[in-house]
Amino acid sequence: MSVSPRFILDSLVDETLWLDEVESTNSFLADRTNAGSALALSWNQTAGRGRLGRKWLSRSGGSLALSLALWPELVPKPVTPGWLGALSLVTGASLADAIRPYLSEPVRLKWPNDVLIAGKKVAGILGEVSTHGHVVVGAGLNVSLNQDELPTDAATSLTLHGFQPDSQLQQVISSFLGGLRETLSGLEGGLTREKRAWVAEQCDTVGREVRVEFPGGATRNGRAMDLDDAGRLLVHFHESNVVESVDAADVIHLRPAR
Ligand code: BT5
Questions:
Q1: Is ligand 1 within 6 A of the CB of residue 92?
Q2: Is 133 left (phi over 0), alpha (psi -120 to 50) or beta?
């Protein structure tokens, strides 16, 4: 007898909470004082948050908001910025691994936190430390948004690429969670060489000509060379001819490197 995905999910976290409507699944878990692992899911997130004060948008029922209060035993104390940076990357990579078997087009990552299908964003990741000290990582996954419901031209959804939510979504969620837990067990101080290679291999940003947009508004062009163990992007900036590590910035892909 095969084991149902629902059973696998319940065995992976202490609690699974399906919320009919919620402002933000990340905020919902971050506000709780419970110390155990928990998964919060909703098809109707009314104030979804992105990075740097941005918004995650979706019509009700089209995009799955999924947040995880991480297994406390897998979270380092104290949480370091390097571990948190690595967390977003491995969460995206675990989600990409979970959806890839169901799609015929390439599923890749864009640094620091996007999952792409055929170059368009299907999911975004947000990792945070709550005021209660537990770590919440969330993913917005566009499941069944139609073309005219996509919030930007750069977005896509799973069903636009042939995905069948009714028969495949539960399996995706359980394999994502299972993969993430396994990955976090070895994360320790940051990305090991093996995990860095796993993420870099599927990251479309590495090896590209990029424009880096810093939070203050400055932009610099360079070539993305690699990732470091804290998940930062190593960029060879053209004007300075120096390789520097970049975090908390946005990256525009200019063209593939020759
Ligand atoms: C992200 O931020 O991509 C992280 C999004 C995390 C959302 C999840 S949902 C569950 C959990 N609860 C929350 O409140 N948040 C997390 P960022 O890299 O800043 O990208 C935000 C940008 O993506 C926006 O400014 C839009 O340009 C674009 N965007 C917004 N909604 C989108 C969507 N549904 N699909 C694709 N792109 C979208």
A1: no
A2: left
Tell me how far apart the alpha carbons of residues 178 and 199 are, in angstroms, rounded to a whole number.
17
Cβ of 157 less than 6 Å from ligand 1: no
Pocket test of ligand 1: the residue of 56, 84, 91 to mutate, having most ligand atoms within 8 Å of its CB, is 56
Residue nearest to atom 21 of ligand 1 (CA): 50
Instruction: Find residue 244's DSSP bridge partners.
Output: 235
Sign of the alpha-carbon dihedral angle for 170, 176, 182, 184? negative
Residue-level pLDDT, tens digit, the chain, 258 residues: 445 556 667 789 999 999 999 999 999 999 998 889 999 999 999 999 999 899 999 989 999 999 999 999 999 988 888 899 899 999 999 999 999 999 999 999 999 999 999 999 999 999 999 988 899 999 999 999 999 999 999 999 999 999 999 999 999 999 999 999 999 998 877 899 999 999 999 999 999 999 999 988 999 999 999 999 999 999 999 999 999 999 988 999 997 655
